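Following up on my earlier thread - several people asked me to post the actual chain instead of describing it. Fair enough. Here it is, all 75 residues.
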Amino acid sequence: MPHIIVKAWPGKSEDQKQRLAEAITRDVMEIFHYGEESVSVALEEIPAERWKQDVYGPDIKGHPERLLKKPGYQM
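Reply from S.P.:
Thanks for posting it. Predicted structure:
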């Protein structure tokens, strides 16, 4: 059952957060063929001054093998 954690800077409205969760849920349902009851989405707000320490170091640089889309323009 997929549980998706989105880490982002603070400052987005509740409407934006809800729309993101709904879009992620729709895509997971369509691509992975799960029902809505199987998908959960969380948003973790990380202040900009802690991003490098709390996200970039441990999640991005520390585990490049997990990245399906790396930072930057490469689509």
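The longest strand covers residues 3-8. That should answer part of your original question.
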